[in-house]
Amino acid sequence: xxxxxxxxxxxxxxxxxxxEDESIFIRTHLSACLDCHSVFQDLKLIVETAAALRxxxxxxxxxxxxxxxxxxxxxxxx
Length: 78
Ligand SMILES: [Zn+2]
Description:
The chain is mainly α. Helix content is 82%, strand content 0%. It has one domain. It is built from four helices and no strands. α3 runs antiparallel to α4. The chain is elongated, with a radius of gyration of 13 Å. The structure holds zinc ion. Residues 1, 3, 6, 29, 33, 35-36 line the site of zinc ion (ZN).
């Protein structure tokens, strides 16, 4: 298990900006690790919600990257 590395890469993975090796690592890890899988689901929801709200009402919500990092850090520390 390499959860710290997985969490680090999740935001890039969701943005589709990872290389092939890293994408494979993430996919393999997510399928084997329930914790990271649920973190990924949570983060995806937050990012999608923030993006939707921002485009709907023009309010400046925190950048997605910042959100990801905050949530990741909280989950790792806990
Ligand atoms: Zn993990």
